[in-house]
Structure formats: C-alpha cells, structure tokens
Write a structure and sequence with these properties.
By secondary structure, this protein is of the alpha+beta class. It folds into three domains: 113 residues, DNA ligase, ATP-dependent, N-terminal domain (DNA ligase i, domain 1), CATH 1.10.3260.10; 192 residues, DNA ligase/mRNA capping enzyme (D-amino Acid Aminotransferase, Chain A, domain 1); 128 residues, OB fold (Dihydrolipoamide Acetyltransferase, E2P) (Beta Barrel). It has 20 helices and 19 strands. Bound molecules: adenosine monophosphate (AMP). Adenosine monophosphate binds next to strand 1 and strand 2.
C-alpha cells in the first residue's frame, strides 16, 4: 500500500520541475510503482481529480467549506484562514500553515500513516453525503483527514479536496507517462482517453492488457466520449476548395450536449461531460418523443429561444444547465430546443468510424426531423454564403462546414469540421515583453508578451503572445518604440516597461498553466496599437474571466 505522503512528495518534486520530459518520467515512475488497485486512483489524483470527470460522483467541496474545515482543525477563525490564503496565494500552503500552527492538531494516525486508498475512501464518503447536515458531515470528514495528515500532506490534501492540484500535470503529461510506464504508444493511450474519458481506466488497461487491451477500448453507452471540435475556417472558398463538397449546417448559438439513450434511460452530458440531465427535463422530453432508436448516443446543440425565436444570451442557457432547484419554472422561462447533428452509436454498434454522410442517414432514421439540425450538401460557395447570412440573420453564430467523408474523431480539433463566424471580442492588453525574431526578422521584435491587469495588486498578469496581424513596416516601428522601454534581456527574450497597450482579437480564451493569469488566448492577432490608452485602461483579469465564462460551453 502506498502512503499518501509518498504521493505528496511526488507532487512536491513535480512542482520544482519545469521541463515536461522530466515531469513525464517522474509521473511514469510513480505510476509504475503503485499497486494495481491504486493505479486508477493515483492517475486521477495526479491530475487533481478524485473521480472520472463524467462520473455522477462529486465531492461538492468549495473553498468556503474547505476554509471551515481548516478553521475547525486549527482552531483559527475563518477570517485568519482567508488572510493566509491571500498572503500565500495558495490554499494548500495556507492550510498547512494554519493547521501546523494551530493548537488542536489531532494526529489520529500518529503511529500509522494515511494511505492513498484511505484518502480516496474518505473522499468517496464525502461524495456520498447529501441533504440536511451533509455540509457539517463533509467538514468532519475533512477534519479527520487533516488531523491525520503530516504537514507535507496537508498541502496536497487541501488542493485535492477542491480538485485544484495545480502542479502542472496536464493531459499531455499523463498520456505520455502512461505510455512510458507501460510501454505502449502515446497515440493508443490518447485514443483510449478520448473514448473513455478516464485516464485511470486507460492506465489500468495499459498495465494489465497492454496494446491489445487499449485497442479494444471503444464507445460504450452511458460513458461519455470527448466531443469532436472544430477549427476556424480560413474562408468559404478555401473550405470548399479543400473539401470539394461540404456539409453545411448552422452554427447554433447554444450549448453542446451529448445524449445517451438506453431504452427509457436518458442521460445528457454537457460539453465538459458533466451529467446535466436533471436540469434539462424539456430536452429529456424531446428525446423521449423524438428519438425512436432503442440505444443510441447523439451529439447536438441545445439552444434557448426567446419569444422572438432568436437565441437568448449564452448566460441564460448556462442558468438552465446549472439550475438545481425550481427547474420547471426556469424551463418555462428559458425553454431549450434541440438541434442534433451527429450520431455516434446505435444499438450496440459504434458509428464513429463511418463517414459523416452515412452517420447523417442513420441520424435521420433514428430521430424526428423537428430535433435535427438542417444540413445541406453543396460544392457551391454562393449556397454556403447564403446559408451563412441566413444563420447570422437568425441570430446564430455562423456556419459549420464539415467534410462529408470524415469520421467522428472524439476530442480532436481537426480540419474536418470548420467553423465560420465573424470575429467577436477584443481585449486591450499591456505589452510586458517580447522576443527577437528569427531569420529575416532577427533584428526585429517578432512577438509580444501580453498581460492583463490585476486590479487588486496592480500587477500585470501574462496571458499570451501575439505575433500575427503585424506588418513588416509595423514591426520596424514597434521595435524602435520598444527599444526605449527594454528593462532586461536574456537570450532572445526582452522584458519591457509596461507602457503600451495592444488591442488584440482572438478566437477563444482558454485556461492555461503557462501564463500568470491562468488563461491563454487562442489565435491572438494585433488589431491596433492603442496609443490612446494608458496601461490603467487595459482590461483586467476580471474581464478575462467574464469573457471566459461567457464563452460557449464553458
Ligand atoms: P467553438 O465553441 O467556437 O469552438 O465551436 C464549436 C461549437 O459549436 C461546438 O462545440 C458546438 O457546441 C457548437 N455548434 C453549433 N452548431 C453546431 C453544428 N451544427 N455542428 C457542430 N457544432 C456546432
């Protein structure tokens, strides 16, 4: 049995590593060292998950419940815990400080030690607590764990309890670590993950059954698979040229849903693959009446339409997805409509490896047309253009252009699904650094490090680099301008005094451990140098967070 202390030590070691190769091999070594029984648990723990993301089991511990547990274990007031969190910037270190300095460290296990399995079972206990008195019972369970833990363990127990381990081990590292530990290819591990959504299961399968076992992992009803994603289309002409004929559908302004129906049993998963069935009784009803197939997995977009039949703001849909109480009242207020566009499984058979056109045929056979997204197959750019305009006029986002011959590739953002939509938002960001270019641009600063403001500390938090949308002429000008503002230089990287604001357009905001803000921009491009703005006018981290949560499906 592996102790939780061992896990904590590994986490601590990983936190000190910056290179992904070294990180991968430490994770791989650890995965190899644990028992079969511990492997699934450890693989999830290392990514900050206690259960598979799709599972109904949920810890339900938020920061305030955690603070209360730390407060009770340490006998320090909650205010004091909050202060420690502010000072350290980390709930893990704050919990450790509080509990080790507090008076009532219980030390239940002072003779023995807390094992990884003890922690997991205690978390399962917590997840099982519902209803009256459950908050208090959760706190007691956490208190028990904190009481039993050594200082080094408290840090990671606290972070794990809110499922934010923050040691920088992401999906890529875990994928490669499983491949390294059990001598299988990273592609097979990746495929298994996209299909099962559970690295725990993938690691276990790799260890016990190797390549063969991984290859056998497939689409299973009631286990959500990652959703296929879209890339940005360069334009209608380019897309039609590349694909020949395209399957055109509206890009509905709603929220993605994956629906599993097995007989009368219906489960709806959100884009994050969380079970949202109980919040969406109207969707369940449309499935019951509109889907004739016995056992099926469907993919589509749920939209909320106002009385004018135009899509409501995305926040309204989110309200529906998050709703836990008074569901029927909100359902009346914000009715949702289904637009199904894909079918991934039908009566015991996986359909992801047959072409889109054939899947569409099966989708049409299985469902009533009233709940299907319309699809037009065409090679005529004028037809695509007309559908695009029609979708925008109806208040939707644009169109999706899909390759009619393509398979459904779970979790992949490939070129078989292209999205075409107008550019939406821009952010005003402060330039805090830059990189000298290469080759022809070696004498020019080719990319610029951007940051948003933290209004509390007045610090600038990095959020990404922009290198696109800048003409050669502009690069010369900017390089001259920024020469004056350089404060330090190392290798090709230069740090600038934060003086200049760039207006930057982007496709999407993503969470990212690589930048101080915790976010990164996808496809950023320079729109304007905002010499009319001072750095105090630049956008704050709060606006970034707002835009992030306002994005589709987040
Ligand atoms: P984006 O979120 O901008 O990457 O665009 C992809 C998203 O568009 C998908 O995840 C769906 O939620 C949404 N969407 C709306 N209509 C469609 C459609 N007809 N086909 C595929 N995705 C669609």
């Amino acid at each position: 049995m592996t102790s939780f202390l061992e896990f904590a030590k590994i986490c601590n070691r990983i936190e000190g590593i910056s290179g992904s190769i070294e990180m991968t091999s430490v994770v791989a070594g650890f995965l190899k060292s644990v028992s079969d029984e511990e492997l699934e648990i450890v693989t999830r723990f290392i990514m900050g998950h206690v259960f598979p993301v799709w599972s109904k089991e949920e810890l339900g511990i938020g920061p305030s419940l955690l603070y209360s547990a730390v407060s009770r274990t340490s006998s320090l007031p909650v205010k004091q815990i909050e202060k420690l969190v502010k000072e350290t910037g980390d709930i893990g270190s704050a919990a450790e400080k509080a509990i080790t300095s507090g008076k009532t460290h219980l030390g239940f296990f002072s003779e023995g030690e807390l094992s990884i399995k003890d922690v997991y079972l205690r978390f399962r206990n917590i997840a099982g607590l519902t209803g009256k008195g459950s908050q208090d019972a959760k706190i007691k369970n956490l208190q028990y764990l904190f009481g039993a833990a050594k200082p080094a363990e408290i840090v990671y127990l606290a972070r794990l309890s809110i499922e934010e381990l923050r040691i920088g081990v992401g999906e890529g590292i875990v994928r490669d670590a499983i491949a390294e530990a059990f001598d299988v290819s990273a592609e097979l591990v990746e495929r298994g993950y996209m299909l099962t959504n559970d690295f725990g299961l993938v690691a276990y399968t790799a260890k016990k059954e190797g390549k063969k076992g991984l290859g056998k992992l497939g689409v299973v009803i009631n286990r959500p698979l990652k959703m296929m994603l879209a890339q940005i289309a360069a334009g209608i002409n380019e897309a039609v040229e590349e694909m020949g004929t395209v399957a055109v559908e509206w890009k509905y302004d709603g929220a993605r849903v994956q629906i599993h129906k097995e007989g009368g049993n219906i489960t709806i998963y959100s884009r994050k693959l969380e079970d949202v069935t109980s919040s969406l009784p109207d969707i369940v009803k449309s499935i019951r009446s509109g889907v004739s197939a016995g056992s099926v997995i469907l993919d589509g977009e749920a939209v909320a339409l106002g009385s004018d039949k135009r899509p409501m703001a995305f926040q309204e849909i989110l309200r529906r997805f998050r709703r836990k109480y008074d569901i029927s009242a909100t359902a009346l207020e914000i009715p949702l409509y289904l637009n199904l566009f894909d079918i991934l499984y039908l009566n015991g058979e996986s359909l992801i490896d047959i072409p889109l056109l054939q899947r569409r045929k099966k989708l049409e056979d299985a469902c009533d047309s009233s709940i299907l997204a319309e699809q037009v197959i065409t090679g005529d750019t004028a037809v695509v253009e007309a559908i695009y305009k029609e979708a925008l006029a109806a208040g939707h986002e644009g169109v999706m252009l899909k390759n009619p011959d393509s398979f459904y590739t779970p979790g992949k953002r490939g070129k078989n699904w292209l999205k075409l939509k107008p550019i939406m938002e821009t952010l005003d960001l402060v330039v805090i650094g830059g990189d000298w270019g290469e080759g022809r641009r070696a004498r020019l600063i080719g990319s610029y490090l951007l940051a948003c403001r933290d209004p509390y500390t007045d610090k600038f938090l990095s959020i990404g680099r922009v290198a696109t949308g800048i003409t050669d002429e502009q690069l010369e000008e900017l390089t001259n301008l920024f020469k004056e503002l350089a404060v330090s230089e190392s290798g090709t990287q230069v740090e600038f005094e934060p003086k200049i604001v760039f207006e930057v357009a982007f496709e999407e905001i993503q969470k990212s451990p690589n930048y101080d803000s915790g976010y990164a921009l996808r496809f950023p491009r320079l729109v304007n140098v905002r010499s009319d703005k001072s750095v105090e006018d630049a956008d704050s981290i709060e606006r970034v967070e707002q835009l992030y949560t306002g994005q589709k499906g987040k």
